[in-house]
Amino acid sequence: MNWWGWPCLRPHRLEAASDMKIPQIVIPGSIDYIVQGRFETLRPSFRRRRTMMHNPEMTFVKTSVKEMAQLGRIIARKLNRSRGSTW
Length: 87
Prior knowledge:
Blueprint: H1 16-19, E1 33-36, H2 44-47, E2 51-55, E3 58-62, H3 65-80
Antiparallel strand pairs: 1-3, 2-3
């Protein structure tokens, strides 16, 4: 699953501050949907889900319970490896 719908988000997100021992407060936001392009370009499995058209070029697709659990594990793994304080 590609969680990095936004161009600025990459797989190493949540790692830089941890690697540099910088204390951090992490508040996940906007993780209950996957950012996609135009609605008509969505793959069929996404079209069957709850969607919200943010604008003509951007559609938000609701994540499944399984995907949310996977995302929770990814975030926990990244934060648990932190060398600095994490709240």
